[in-house]
Amino acid sequence: MTETQQTHISHADYMALVRALEFQIDAGVNVFLEAEPVNRFDHQPSTETVEPNLQSNSPITPPSDSAPVFEPQGQNDDKPLYELPEPRPVAPAVLRKNTTEAGDISAAESAALRADTLEALKQAMEAFEGCALKRAAKNTVFADGNPAAKIMLVGEAPGRDEDREGKPFIGRSGKLLDKMFAAIGLDRNDIYITNLVPWRPTGNRTPTPDETALCRPFLLRHIELVQPDILVLVGGVSAKEMLDSSLGITKLRGTWQDLNIKGRDIPALPILHPAYLLRNPARKAETWQDLCSLQKKLSHSPPAHAANNSANHIGGTD
Ligand code: URA
């Protein structure tokens, strides 16, 4: 572009670019090598993919923590400048079995199964009185974003801001989550967000296994109705619960897993929770790798399923 040529963008687009750049800079993407972007995913990564070992319980090897490899331009034209570690597949994940200590799980199950649309599910959860968490909560935090999006995020539980407003991920963590997705060109219209439990545990404590078990029928029905192409498990509590894994999130993150929800296999990607990243900003580099892996998966998945049955759309997700 010559000095006299100017590009006009709206203030909103400008701010979205600033937010995307902020996260990339925080994640260590601070070296610009070329004037034009190059699709690095066209190159075959040279790192080996570890085949899943379905027989052994050996721990997953996490992707290398080493810094991204930047090569000076022109040294080896065949080699991608930035090599992403290929996510390691592990044994297909299964959902934990229902327990009976969590209260009236069967009431939650039948209420969830009766709901044929997202709006009906939202109403069923708002009417459900079988979970003690609800008594202290101001709102049932159902979801936000676009139910027709390919990507569905499952976080942990609403915090104070979410409880007050009735929407997931709108506090400090939510703002960072927005920046993370902006960094790969996505906003809330491109994703759909919910949590393991829809009611805030008092004092922002972690929901107990009994509480997540009690809310699980609603979550499974929620996923079944949305039919996402990709699940993103936000944080250790969500990843452990959904994958029934004893591994910590620092091992699970970035590893694609097949999660079978009601007979349908959905690729699931655990990522670090933005609240954890706020406390440990140095780990943003790993999240950047995971977001790039998500972007790559997304580019290989077919177009979003046709408007996702308009009957499934819920009102008030703006
Ligand atoms: N943390 C979560 O896991 N979910 C929210 O909705 C907000 C914060």
Automatic annotation (TrEMBL):
The keyword Hydrolase applies. SUPFAM superfamilies: Uracil-DNA glycosylase-like. Residues 300-318 have a biased composition (Low complexity). It comes from Candidatus Micropelagius thuwalensis. This is Type-4 uracil-DNA glycosylase. Residues 42-86, 299-318 are annotated as: Disordered. The keyword Translocase does not apply. It comes from the Bacteria. Belongs to the uracil-DNA glycosylase (UDG) superfamily. Type 4 (UDGa) family. Keywords: 4Fe-4S, DNA damage, DNA repair, Hydrolase, Iron, Iron-sulfur, Metal-binding. InterPro entries: UDG_Type-4/5, Ura-DNA_glyco_family4, Uracil-DNA_glycosylase-like, Uracil-DNA_glycosylase-like_sf. One of its GO terms (molecular function) is uracil DNA N-glycosylase activity. It catalyses: Hydrolyzes single-stranded DNA or mismatched double-stranded DNA and polynucleotides, releasing free uracil. One of its GO terms (biological process) is DNA repair. Its EC number is 3.2.2.27. Residues 142-292 form the Uracil-DNA glycosylase-like domain. Residues 46-59 have a biased composition (Polar residues).
